[in-house]
Design goal:
The protein is α/β, with parallel strands linked by helices. The strands form four sheets. Strands 3, 4, 5, 8, 9, 16 and 17 form a seven-stranded mixed sheet that branches.
Length: 342
């Protein structure tokens, strides 16, 4: 099969479109013919060697995958050849207490496609049957691949961790990202007031089209000052944050009394300062969030399948142009998800 692999860490130039062995399928697994794979920043960090994981080389990244069940497949898996499926991106043991409680990402064996196992930058991928999910509704392969990681992450952050309530004020940082565009839609699903933050006018226009009530241009405006103005100095109930150091202080200052800040990423740096007096004095809550459980993915897929919320697709590249796709992501010139098509 054809795949995009890297044999050592580095820049986009280490990505090689080349022949690779077809995945070996073990009992309880399904071979999937990849029709679309969405990019995530994780792909870039893995390629750069910044995650701390020791990867097998050569390596294939890609956590967001949709395609068809390939022949042959075991009837015991419950799937038939040509079934249209997407893959839950997180792989867990399925046997520990965390897994039984639906806390997949707390499993000590937890990993993702493209991390400790090969991912979707390839024509085929082997997946545990427990991770294979029928594509809901009439979604295309590209739409299906653009959903799992960002919508699962946004759902876990807002619904599970922050316990978002109808009508609350929500500040969404990085509105142009896949997870940001998902968060806007999920918050609006609960009739919340959404204030979206991005660094370009065209991204803010797209955020409004998704339902954002107010927008803040982070390069021209102070996030905290604008939040105070828009909320009558009250602040927001929930801050949805995944950027890290560059916006941390502004996000913390934007919280209302009893506000909750939920974070899942550190694209701009992981070291931040914290004013403890303002934390306890305003009775604010800081919440970390990482991925989510398969049950949560099934919950959000109901809404996606009914097209109550949608995956936002920026662009689609041929698999052979994976380096160009990753460069586009690194430059930040996108809104929503960038995809590869084998």
């Amino acid at each position: 099969m054809k795949a995009v692999r890297f044999h050592h860490y580095g820049g986009v130039e280490v990505l090689k479109y080349e022949d690779a062995p077809e995945p070996r399928v073990n009992p309880g697994e399904v071979l999937v013919k990849v029709k679309a794979c969405a990019l995530n920043h994780l792909d870039i960090w893995l390629r750069q060697g910044l995650t701390g994981w020791s990867l097998s080389m050569p390596h294939i990244v890609g956590s967001d995958i949709a395609g068809e069940v390939a022949e042959p497949t075991s009837p015991a898996t419950g799937f038939r050849p040509a079934d249209r499926v997407l893959l839950a991106p997180g792989i867990s043991c399925g046997r520990c207490a965390a897994c039984f409680h639906g806390l997949d990402s707390a499993c000590r064996a937890y990993t993702l496609f493209g991390v400790m196992v090969d991912g979707g930058y390839a024509e085929y991928v082997a997946a545990p049957a427990a991770n294979v999910i029928p594509i809901p509704g009439d979604l295309s392969f590209e739409e299906a691949a653009a959903v799992p990681l960002v919508f699962l992450t946004a759902w876990h952050m807002l619904m599970t961790r922050a316990q978002l309530k109808p009508g609350e004020d929500v500040l969404v940082i990085g509105a142009g990202s896949g997870v940001g565009s998902a968060a806007i839609q999920l918050a609006k699903m609960l009739a919340c007031r959404v204030i979206a933050v991005a660094g370009a006018d065209w991204k803010l226009e797209k955020a409004r089209a998704l339902g954002a009530d107010e927008v803040i241009h982070r390069r021209r405006q102070s996030i905290a000052d604008e939040v105070r103005r828009l909320t009558g100095k009250r602040g927001v109930d929930v801050v949805f944050e995944h950027v890290g150091a560059a916006v941390w202080e502004a996000c913390f200052e934007s919280l209302a009394t009893y506000g909750r800040l939920v974070t899942c990423g550190t694209t701009s740096g992981e070291e931040v300062k914290l004013n403890l007096r303002m934390l306890y004095g305003r009775q604010r809550t800081l919440l970390g969030s990482f991925m989510g459980g398969k049950g949560e993915l099934l919950d959000v897929l109901k809404w996606v399948g009914q097209r109550k919320v949608k995956a936002v697709i920026d662009s689609v590249f041929p698999l052979a142009e994976a380096a160009a796709a990753q460069k586009k992501m690194e430059e930040g010139d996108f809104f929503g998800k960038i995809l590869l098509r084998p």
